[in-house]
Specification:
The protein has 722 residues and is of the alpha+beta class. The protein is built from 18 helices and 21 strands. Strands 3, 10, 12, 13, 14, 15, 16 and 17 form an 8-stranded mixed beta sheet that branches. Strands 5-6-11 form a 3-stranded antiparallel beta sheet, with no helix packed on it. A two-stranded antiparallel ribbon has the order 1-2. Helix 11 crosses helix 13 and helix 15 crosses helix 16. The two termini are 44 Å apart.
Length: 722
């Protein structure tokens, strides 16, 4: 009755590939400052000296105060084309009030959900210090998996359903974006590249940049409808917002304060605890840890170059840019140290979105869909969805107050993209106060105890969506995230497992993966119910860190290596089965035993059992129907009659098809002689001795034999050529 809230095919859309990690210090708009395009961020960062800014270095505060932008530009410097069109004055007064202006402040509501990741919330997510000062250890590797920052809705109408009037409102129905994407073509000549003093080939500054703006449909004059963008403005669906930019910048600063030491005498974790210094530029660079058997990083390369850093995301604008902004927060001082005629280049690893594995992808693993269906067809789920008192209250509210017959899959996203961007909620939902928080699956909130229907709806929507992640010991999560776990462990296992052969080349010090909420939640779920129970959604800019520490002279870690699991500033290591409850570090073998059984890609069992079962069911039904017909009076005669009529009808249709004039007028493709070409190019036009062209046959049509007859490719070959 409630229905699984997972939107099938969500995100299967055209994606934006960015030209990554190019400084735009020399963009004309930035020359007045000399160091970058400036974005005004309406927060007094210097005044917020809690966990984020407490004891921060002067450089860190400089980054926060100046808010330098590498890939963003405030639209305040130029008119918004989407709202510059002339409209009928009388209609404009009624239907086109003052357009909603995107900003970076949180001022409309008294309380915001943690999901929004406000500046105050982001300050609570700094990396915690090690809990045990007696362990002799050295941090040698970090894998960080982030969710992108705040974004626009992930789809448009009609599939994205929220409440009556959502798409008719100027606030929620029109999305215009200030965050810009800059692109530059790589140099086509070697003159644009040179080798620096360390022997690294670098590229000089680009001659020009392209600013990518989603306003090409503005000429239509249609603010909403089939000739407008899906979000009826200049925003791409699912596009990173300025708020998201700020969130990921803070994530980068958190990592810098925890893992980077440049000699500043501050209260940063890396300054206080030498064990946490993943980078220490005050000492000569040495690859690896205390006695690591494998080389980690390359001291001869810049710290943001491979193999010191590996940056990975899927091919979405919001994930790619989120990773870039985080790296800007982490390495900005080093980026600015690059010569004026050079460009800091970071390699970005990605893949075709429909083939990628940063979320559960049942397109490449059909059995994952079987497990998804199994979860929502289970008696446990049906009992919860049909009988749980809280679910009944929420469903009734959605129908009576929001005008919807059922709770749509976009419910949670509708709530959060509205409140987190200071847009107006319906009066019935404008009651969030944060007093309820996540609730257990069997919870029921008495109406007299809380009037916060916003949070009650949110809690039911979260449990509904995440049901499959935790069902049956997280079978869906383990199978679906197996490929990503294999990718993660490719750079961890050689460090901690002596049985693994040496990989090709040094391992990265930092492995950054920029993904989605649907990346982090199944990853956490696969580590056990104690780590994540499915009652709270991954917030904007959430971050998981897996730290690998080399241990020296400590019998508590037999393998000689320990790991620490951190999620949004909280150490979760002790919540994993097999890890000590009193420590935030655990022997690396516990991690291996947990994830290696399902850290698989091609070797996964992805064959769907539903396909064969469906075929067998159909055949059984046909057999049963035929037997019933034979057993009925006159059944045999009826079967014979059906067969005769079918043959006659088929013969007539075939006759007219063969005789159809279009069949006789088909052009014939031939050549007198031809060599078979194995590429996709057009075959060379062949000429008779007098110079007349005989034919030009695209390779797609196949080859010809020695008699000039066309040899058609079979379907598989043709698909391959296409």
């Amino acid at each position: 009755p409630l229905g699984p809230a997972i939107e099938r095919g969500r995100g299967h859309r055209a994606s934006t590939t960015l030209f990554l990690s190019r400084s735009i210090r020399h963009h004309p708009a930035s020359r007045a400052r000399g160091i970058g395009i400036s974005i005004p961020i309406p927060f007094d960062f210097a005044a917020r000296r809690s966990s984020l800014t407490r004891g921060a270095s002067a450089h860190t505060m400089k980054i926060l105060s100046s808010s330098l932008a590498i890939l963003a530009l405030s639209s305040a410097t130029k008119p918004n084309l989407e709202h510059s069109r002339s409209l009928d004055t009388s209609m404009q007064k009624q239907q086109d009030p003052t357009p909603f202006k995107e900003n970076n402040a949180y001022t409309k509501y008294k309380h915001y959900p943690p999901y929004c990741s406000t500046p105050e919330e982001m300050e609570t997510r700094s990396v915690p210090p090690l809990s045990d000062a007696t362990i002799a250890s050295k941090l040698i590797h970090v894998t960080a998996v982030i969710r992108h920052g705040a974004r626009t809705p992930w789809d448009g109408a009609p599939s994205y359903k929220c409440w009556d009037g959502y798409w008719q409102s100027e606030e929620t129905g029109v999305w215009n974006c200030d965050l810009k994407t800059y692109m530059s073509p790589p140099s086509a000549s070697k003159e644009k590249t040179k080798t620096d003093s360390s022997g690294i080939e670098i590229e000089e500054e680009p001659d020009f940049l392209f600013e990518k703006t989603y306003d090409a449909l503005a000429y239509s004059g249609n603010r909403k409808g089939t000739t407008a963008n899906l979000l009826n403005g200049t925003c791409l669906k699912g596009q990173l917002l300025l708020r998201g930019y700020d969130q990921e910048l803070r994530n980068g600063l958190h990592l810098r304060q925890a893992y980077f030491f440049d000699g500043d005498d501050t209260l940063d974790i890396a300054a206080e605890d030498e064990r946490m210094r993943l980078w220490d530029i005050t000492k000569p660079s040495v690859a690896g840890g205390i006695s690591s058997g494998f080389v980690i990083g390359d001291p001869n390369k810049l710290m943001y170059q491979e193999p010191n850093l590996r940056y990975r995301s899927d091919d979405e604008q919001r994930t790619a840019m989120s990773g870039q902004v985080l790296l800007r927060g982490l390495f900005e001082k080093e980026f600015l140290a690059v010569g004026d005629d050079e460009t800091a280049i970071i390699r970005h690893h990605t893949a075709d979105y429909v083939q990628d594995v940063l979320s559960v992808n049942d397109r490449i693993c059909p059995r994952a869909h079987d497990l998804w269906l199994e979860a929502y067809e289970s008696d446990e789920y049906k009992n919860w969805a049909e009988s749980n008192s809280e679910v009944k209250v929420v469903k009734k509210f959605v129908k009576d107050e929001l005008g919807l017959d059922e709770m749509p899959g976009a419910t949670l996203d509708c709530l959060m993209t509205t409140i987190c961007t200071d847009r107006t909620l319906p009066p019935a939902l404008d009651n969030y106060d944060g007093s309820l928080g996540p609730t257990p699956y069997n919870a029921f909130v008495e109406d007299g105890d809380v009037n916060d229907m916003f949070e009650r709806i949110k809690n039911v929507a979260v449990k509904n969506f995440t049901w499959a992640y935790r069902h049956n010991d997280a079978a869906y999560s383990k199978l679906g995230m197996g490929p990503l776990w294999k990718e993660i462990m490719t750079y961890i296992r050689p460090i901690v497992d002596s049985t693994v052969t040496s990989p090709d080349g040094p391992l990265p010090k930092l492995h950054l993966i920029s993904g989605h909420d649907t990346t982090l939640m199944p990853l956490l779920s696969s580590l056990g119910p104690g780590v994540w129970d499915g009652t709270e959604w991954s917030h904007y800019a959430s971050m998981i860190q897996i730290e690998v520490h080399e241990i020296k002279d400590n019998t508590a870690f037999p393998s000689g290596y320990a790991f620490r699991l951190i999620y949004n500033g909280e150490a979760l290591t002790s919540k994993m089965v097999g890890c000590p409850k009193q420590s935030d570090m655990c022997d690396s073998q516990v991690l291996l035993r947990r994830v290696m059984p399902f850290a698989k890609f091609e070797e996964r069992n992805c064959a769907s059992s539903k396909t064969s079962a469906s075929s067998e069911t159909i055949m059984d039904e046909m057999k049963t129907a035929a037997e019933d017909m034979v057993n009925e009076p006159g059944g045999i005669f009826l079967m014979v009659l059906i067969a005769v009529v079918s043959m006659a009808l088929g013969g007539i249709i075939t006759f007219f098809f063969i005789r159809h004039p279009s069949r006789n007028n088909r052009p014939a493709y031939h050549k007198h002689t031809s060599s078979i070409l194995g590429d996709l190019s057009m075959r060379v036009m062949e000429a008779e001795p007098d110079g007349a062209i005989i034919s030009a046959v695209p390779a797609i049509y196949g080859s010809t034999n020695e008699h000039g007859d066309e040899k058609k490719l079979d379907d598989r070959e043709e698909d391959a050529i296409i």
